[in-house]
Design goal:
This protein has 431 residues and is α+β, with helices and mostly antiparallel strands. The chain has 11 helices and 19 strands. A hairpin with a 5-residue loop joins strand 16 and strand 17. It is globular, with a radius of gyration of 22 Å.
């Protein structure tokens, strides 16, 4: 067992393989504040990749209602309980604002990762590289269990209506869209005895070589997010493939000139909650500094998008803008100690951040770079901040332009959405 550096934890950690990174890394940002739980992303993936015999229970992309929902059922609470049992009261973060650096943007995690906790938990069939569990058959039933089930008390006496007041609702739930995080240190890869799982050097997408897989389900057991799934009809495990033909620019219909495009689930999102792309990795295995890449800007530059369960230690490449209305302790458990900073920025974004937030789902081509042209001031809005105070947000009608891999403009959008009035003499139904 060697050591690798995990920037999301702010420290080195144990991992069975030495440092080895792709040239580019597939990554994505989901804005939970916008998700409407329409499941369009889920069905786009299902109808493309998992509609065959033996895949009935496979949902490579799913949207679950937190805090009670999950697929497989209780996937996160079970593992959190196992980690706490392995390291009682030790799963904590050390956060010092003076020590926040690009190498430790959220502080330092002092607890055990799934790799470090594996040795403390006995197994009946040999040593494990990652702590995990194998879901029961019933856990794979009902992918939408507890959908839109809220937690909390609605009101007491004259407290009517306060349950839905910002900054934290007393009654709450939120939608969590999930797919494989294509982790930098995949637990599924670490655990596979056949070395059937690998990361593609060109984009970091994690795949399972079906010719090598023998269906031992060690990957299913080890993946903290339970996105590796066993298929009984073939006796092998399968998982999200990141729609790599689209990412490669190999789809002849949408990429006639080889332009990398977003995955099916990303492209289908009507709520515009998704932004997917590629970030460049330097020779040290770190994200190459590039504040004009929208993913780098949101994740590393502004720290408004956070990794999901970073304490698991896999360095996931799926990031989320946390929902404003959810109690902070719950969000900090899920996204780490950067929650307050992220929500403060999202609640009252400055003009540059507001412009970048407009890029979500404006094109199905992957945006590699953006530039902003400043426009006139159009509004001032009083905003309720997470701490309970108020702040005036100044809004400017800036224009942001997104460019693809080849430097070609693929989207242009203004902060203020343009409106068009139809001529009533031509269009009879105009008001």
């Amino acid at each position: 067992m060697g050591e690798v550096f995990n920037w999301q934890l702010g420290r080195k950690m144990r991992y069975p393989y030495p440092e080895h990174h792709p040239r580019w890394q597939f990554a994505f940002v989901f804005n939970i504040n916008r998700c409407i739980n329409c499941q369009t992303c889920t069905m786009a993936c299902k109808s493309t990749w998992t509609f065959s015999e033996g895949q009935e229970h496979m949902w490579w992309n799913n949207v679950e209602t937190k805090p009670f929902g999950g697929y497989p059922h209780n996937w996160d609470s079970k593992l959190l309980g196992m980690l706490e049992a392995a390291n009682p009261k030790g799963q904590v973060w050390e956060v010092n604002d003076q020590k926040i650096t690009p190498q430790a943007p959220y502080g330092t995690f002092k607890g055990m990762t799934v790799f470090e906790a594996a040795g403390s938990t006995p197994s009946s069939d040999g040593a494990r590289e990652a702590l995990g569990y194998l879901p029961d058959e019933k856990d794979w039933e009902a992918p939408n269990i507890h959908e839109e089930t809220a937690v909390g008390k609605a009101w007491k006496g004259t407290d009517f209506g306060s349950s839905v007041q910002l900054p934290e609702h007393k009654v709450w739930y939120f939608y969590l869209a999930r797919l494989c995080n294509h982790c930098s240190y995949p637990a599924c890869l670490a655990e596979c005895p056949r070395q059937a799982i690998y990361k593609r050097p060109e984009d970091g997408i994690v795949l399972i070589d079906q010719s090598r897989c023998r269906g031992y389900q060690r990957c299913v057991e080890a993946c903290p997010y339970k996105k590796s799934i066993y298929r009984p009809s073939t006796g092998t495990s399968e998982k999200c493939i990141g729609c790599y033909p689209r990412v490669e620019g190999k789809d002849p219909l949408i990429s006639p000139n080889g332009e990398p495009c977003e995955t099916r689930c990303m492209s289908a999102c009507p709520g515009k909650i998704r932004l997917q792309g590629l970030v460049e990795i330097d020779e040290n295995g770190q994200w190459k500094e590039d504040p004009t890449n929208p993913l780098y800007y949101l994740i590393r530059e502004r720290r408004i998008a956070l990794p999901i369960y970073p304490q698991f230690g896999t360095e996931p490449n799926g990031f989320y803008i946390p929902p404003r209305w959810v109690p902070r302790p719950y969000l900090e458990q899920m996204f780490g100690p950067g929650v307050q900073h992220a929500i403060e920025q999202y609640s009252c974004p400055d003009r540059e951040l507001l412009s970048v937030l407009q890029l979500f789902r404006t094109t199905r081509q992957i945006i590699f770079h953006f530039e902003i042209t400043k426009g006139p001031k159009v509004a001032e809005i009083e905003v309720l901040m997470p701490g309970g105070g108020k702040k005036v947000q100044e809004i400017y009608n800036d224009t942001i332009v997104g460019y693809n891999k080849f430097g070609k403009e693929v989207t242009r959008i203004t902060t203020e959405e343009p409106t068009f009035e139809r001529d009533a003499n031509i269009h009879v139904n105009s008001i």
